[in-house]
Specification:
Elements (H helix, E strand, L loop, with lengths): L16 H4 L6 E2 L11 H10 L12 H15 L8 E4 L2 H12 L5 E6 L3 H4 L1 H4 L4 E5 L12 H8 L2 E7 L11 H13 L3 E5 L20 H4 L2 E5 L13 E4 L3 H9 L10 H13 L1 H25 L4 E2 L7 E5 L8 H9 L1 E2 L1 E2 L10 E5 L4 H16 L3
Parallel strand pairs: 1-11, 3-4, 3-5, 5-6, 6-7
Antiparallel strand pairs: 2-8, 7-8, 9-10, 10-13, 12-13
Helix pairs in contact: 2-11, 3-11, 4-10, 7-8, 12-14
This protein binds pyridoxal-5'-phosphate.
The site of pyridoxal-5'-phosphate has 13 residues, from helix 4.
Length: about 375
């Protein structure tokens, strides 16, 4: 079966969060799901499962554990054991479970800013103080970690909450950088909670490195959260997994479920199995399409939307756009009202990000072009 990445699909009738949040004449370029149909291998697995008319509670089978062990080895040269895996209904619940179960009260949680809002706000859910580590672009458009600032922050921290690859900056942490970060956490006896949900969406031939794969000392203090949901576009199936290699940590992490974090979606388990075992070809094609979309967007911003600045994301289908030079009161509101384009507001990602918006380019090219034309028109007709 061929994948037609160019055809727009009608989603309003499906109860899609992305498509039902705004009025019908607004183009939704906000929440992180893609406007591409999922891989045929996943659809086949779901259809096969639905041949059986019982949908009771499900539990991950050995075959899924083996598939994930193999994927982590082949994709990232990360060797784990099947029992290191904990299945969850989402990465966000996993982050909160880890904070709740593993961070002593009063200890700080260090995280980079800007950051995905559910991560930014997670420490407050558990009355834990947040310690911000600002990421700033250098002259090459890279966002290097300030290691001395990190060392300083870790003195008062119980955990480091990492987003790698990073949402919204699309930063991919290098192995060397992760080693410095991980070694600092070992020295300061700080837990690492690493959200790696975007691990399979890397551009320009880059490879993802899980921080826990760096060395056994780092692995022993890490909870890594992953899911097929972003790369294979199945976020609505609410299935994710944690890798916790330290058995004591894993036992305490599991205790954090405590009636709050439920078991995993039955269909999500089958979809996850199909994604990691049969979804590689589909993902390769989607990645090539996304990379072209990213480059098309970057070119259009440079040539057609002066006043907006964008650094090339190295991962994710999310672009972080600096609108400061446009001098708008509220860029998200401006484009919503005048271009009928819904972007994510920068303020969701950090207090000082009011001049930024995040644009989701995981969509057919025609939809991206429509978004750009609308934004261009809205700026040219500005009074
Ligand atoms: C960095 C990051 N973490 C977590 C999530 C949400 O994950 P889940 O839906 O599995 O809770 C997202 C969704 O966009 C994300 O970008």
């Amino acid at each position: 079966m061929t994948i037609n990445l160019n055809s727009a699909i009608e989603r309003r009738a499906t109860g899609s969060k992305k498509w039902s949040q705004y009025a019908d004449d607004v183009l939704p370029m906000w929440v992180a799901d893609m406007d591409f149909p999922v891989a045929p291998a996943i659809m086949n697995a779901l259809q096969a499962r639905l041949e059986h008319p019982l949908l009771g509670y499900a539990v991950a089978q050995d075959s899924l554990r083996e598939t994930l062990v193999k994927h982590l080895w082949t994709a990232y040269a990360w060797r784990i054991l099947p029992e290191d895996l904990v299945f969850l209904p989402g990465v966000e619940p996993g982050v909160n479970m880890a904070l709740h179960a593993l961070v002593p009260s009063g200890a700080g949680v260090a995280l980079h800013t800007p950051n995905y809002s559910p991560l930014l706000n997670a420490p407050a859910n558990w009355q834990l103080p947040r310690i911000d580590l600002p990421l700033r672009a250098d002259t090459h458009g890279e966002y290097p970690t300030d290691i001395p600032a990190l060392e300083h922050a870790l003195e008062n921290a119980g955990a480091l909450l990492l987003s790698n690859p990073h949402n919204p900056l699309g930063k991919v942490f290098s192995g060397e950088e992760l080693q410095l970060i991980g070694d600092a956490c070992v020295r300061h006896d700080v837990l690492i909670i690493s959200d790696e949900i975007h691990a399979d969406i890397l551009f320009d031939g880059r490879r993802h490195t899980p921080i826990a794969s760096i060395n056994p000392q780092i692995a022993a203090r890490s909870v890594t959260l992953m899911s097929a949901s972003k790369a294979w576009n199945i976020a609505g199936l609410k299935t994710a997994f944690a890798v916790v290699q330290n058995p004591q940590l894993r036992q305490r992490f599991n205790a954090g479920r405590l009636g709050l974090v439920d078991s995993v979606n039955a269909l999500g388990l089958d979809a996850t199995q199909a994604a990691y075992s049969e979804g590689a070809d589909w993902l390769r094609k989607v990645m090539a399409y996304l990379q072209d979309n990213r480059d098309y967007l970057a070119d259009a911003i440079r040539t057609r939307l002066p006043g907006i600045q964008m650094h090339l994301p190295h991962s994710t289908y999310l672009a972080w756009l600096d609108c400061s030079a446009l001098a708008l009161d509220n860029p998200q509101q401006f484009f919503l009202e005048h271009a009928k384009v819904a972007l994510s507001a920068g303020t969701e990602f950090g207090d000082d990000c009011g001049q930024f918006v995040r644009l989701n380019f995981g969509c057919p090219r025609a939809m991206l072009e429509e978004c750009l034309s609308r934004m261009e028109r809205s700026l040219s007709t500005r009074g």
